[in-house]
């Protein structure tokens, strides 16, 4: 009996020991907690840059303002071009009494018949320059003609006759008022005002330039300082930015559509892109014209997110050795001009993330 009790106690002690050992083993192999990750601080380098402010103006792509084109011959219209047609030098604008009325380039209309040997004038000069541009031999022009003028020489009259024959006109050597129409360059027909059968000596159509332009209606303060030929950029609807320049700045303030109550009078500014292909797929669209404003050249700058507002006022940046007080200058494109003791190009500064 005593031996059984001893055996039972020995077994109990062993079980207890095994149980304790098992508990210790479990405790000894429990995985240690993972270390807390340290947050990485975002930094940027102090850079030397040229900063510039940009004035953004609303613009629209098109062919510019349409202007009326009238005929000047006492005849009947027998043919008209369709809207959208492009007409270049030497081609017919319309037909009157079934004869072509041809487009020439120049700065003034023909106001008298071009006839009579040795006739002198700027209108003769327009005829001479256009016939030469079309490939006709006009001979020598006398040096006595003033700048822009021409002389109706025998050779020029022969050239006129050859041109008339090529256009199925009577080869008289005389150009009557209304036989040609003079424009500053090639034109695009914007709209047609009459039908065949109408009188040819009235407004027949409206035309525009053939090159697309960007029209900006700018208030006087926004247009201040803009000059013809100034380089700008244009942001297109697909967010591409292309190079452009100012073609003209209007001098007449015009009220916006709807009257003065709808806004301040505005100036019309025309802008042309450097590469016409940039607008090839756009007949009309709203764009942004970006005009450079103030410029700060070769200055130290940091991202705006690097600025730390101080409780006592002003700003600082967080450098490798602590806060550095800075004086701010121009803000542009997410950067700010900074200066201050201890600030150097290439230094890392903390930026807010």
Automatic annotation (TrEMBL):
Top-level taxon: Bacteria
InterPro entries, alphabetized: Peptidoglycan-bd-like, PGBD-like_sf
Residue span, Peptidoglycan binding-like domain: 122-173
Name of the protein this chain belongs to: Peptidoglycan binding-like domain-containing protein
Organism expressing this protein natively: Paractinoplanes atraurantiacus
């Amino acid at each position: 009996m005593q031996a059984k009790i001893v055996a039972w106690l020995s077994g109990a002690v062993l079980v207890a020991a095994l149980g304790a050992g098992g508990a210790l083993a479990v405790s000894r192999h429990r995985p240690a907690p993972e270390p807390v990750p340290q947050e990485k601080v975002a930094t940027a380098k102090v850079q030397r840059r040229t900063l510039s402010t940009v004035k953004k103006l609303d613009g629209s792509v098109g062919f510019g303002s349409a202007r009326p084109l009238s005929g000047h011959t006492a005849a009947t219209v027998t043919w008209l071009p369709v809207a959208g047609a492009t007409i270049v030098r030497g081609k017919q604008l319309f037909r009157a009494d079934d004869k072509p009325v041809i487009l020439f380039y120049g700065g003034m209309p023909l106001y008298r018949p071009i006839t009579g040997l040795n006739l002198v004038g700027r209108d003769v000069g327009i005829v001479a320059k256009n016939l030469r541009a079309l490939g006709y031999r006009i001979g020598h022009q006398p040096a006595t003609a003033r700048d822009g003028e021409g002389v109706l020489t025998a050779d020029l009259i022969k050239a006129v006759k050859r041109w008339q024959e090529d256009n199925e006109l009577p080869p008289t050597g005389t150009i009557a008022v209304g036989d040609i129409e003079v424009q500053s360059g090639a034109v695009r027909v914007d709209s047609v005002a009459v039908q065949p059968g109408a009188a040819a000596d009235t407004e027949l159509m409206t035309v525009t330039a053939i090159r697309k332009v960007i029209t900006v209606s700018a208030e006087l303060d926004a247009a201040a300082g803009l000059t013809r030929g100034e380089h700008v950029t244009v942001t297109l609807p697909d967010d591409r930015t292309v190079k452009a320049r100012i073609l003209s700045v209007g001098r007449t303030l015009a009220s916006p559509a709807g009257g003065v109550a709808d806004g301040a009078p505005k100036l019309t500014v025309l802008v042309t892109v450097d590469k016409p292909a940039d607008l090839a797929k756009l007949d009309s669209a709203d764009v942004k014209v970006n005009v450079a404003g103030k410029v700060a050249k070769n200055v130290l700058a940091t991202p705006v997110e690097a600025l730390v507002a101080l409780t006592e006022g002003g700003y600082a940046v967080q450098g490798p050795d602590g806060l550095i007080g800075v004086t701010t200058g121009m803000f542009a494109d997410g950067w700010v001009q900074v200066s201050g003791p201890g600030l150097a190009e290439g230094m890392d500064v903390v930026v807010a993330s």
